[in-house]
Amino acid sequence: MDLQLKGKRAIVTGSSSGIGEAIARTLAAEGALVVVHGRREAEAKRVAAAIGAAGGKAIVAIGDLGTDAGADAVARVVNDAFDGVDILVNNAGAFPQGPFLESSAAQWNELYNQNVGSMVRLIGRLVPRMKERKWGRVISIASAVATMPAAGMANYSATKGANVNLAVSLAKELTGTGITSNAVSPGMILTPGVEEMLKGMAPQLGISPGDLPALIQYAVTTFVPNPTNRLGTVNDIANAVTFLASPLAGYINGANLRVDGGTVQTIN
């Protein structure tokens, strides 16, 4: 199937590793011109080079989207190189863990700025040019915990709920502009960060930190059971996002697409 993405311009925030990297690579493989974003220049350049080696086209934008200055710097690179973008994938964010009663209001506010404020900043800087062209896609990466919050990550769960609300609210704000806005909510995805989280849980589970298959099995059967009976991969998310970014997904708007293997036990 041709997703009709050849020549579309895209930025994927937080694409120097993990889910964001997979999204950037998949968009580029479909012919999109991609801006790889991150705060670690060496890693962002690595991803851009890999895209180029595979026959795609990518440039790098470095900046901390938790600040106005960082967002300005990223938007400047995008506008200078591509004269704006057609596709904005809001993926950058932090994934802290810790007991509710051990987190301060200041920590909650800081995380909200990282996980929600970063999205607001780039939407404000990049969507106006989409409106001028009367076409665009905004895809915000949320999480299954947006609708099924988990213990030990209350502040993170709250920001992901805000990401879904942001995506749907934006869709309504952009009525009639030719721009769609959707959220994608991954379940547990086997990234390096998730591997480290599982290894950190190993001692209390009586499992060796080096026994990753056993830790994954625990996660699938007990921690985040799902009827698909496996953890997700970064490509599971990348494929869903790439479809939503395409012209073929024009009638999907204001939606929260859960890509979680059925982990969330509700119908919405």
Brief summary of the model shown:
By secondary structure, the protein is an alpha/beta fold.
Structure description:
It is a single chain. By secondary structure, this protein is of the alpha/beta class. 47% of the residues lie in helices and 14% in strands. The chain has a 7-stranded parallel sheet, sandwiched between helices. Helix 4 (105-133) links the parallel strand 4 and strand 5. The longest helix is centred in the middle third of the chain and has 29 residues, at 105-133.
SSE arrangement:
Layout: E1 9-12, H1 18-29, E2 33-38, H2 41-53, E3 57-62, H3 68-82, E4 87-90, H4 105-133, E5 136-141, H5 154-173, E6 179-186, H6 192-205, H7 212-223, H8 234-245, E7 256-259
Parallel strand pairs: 1-2, 1-4, 2-3, 4-5, 5-6, 6-7
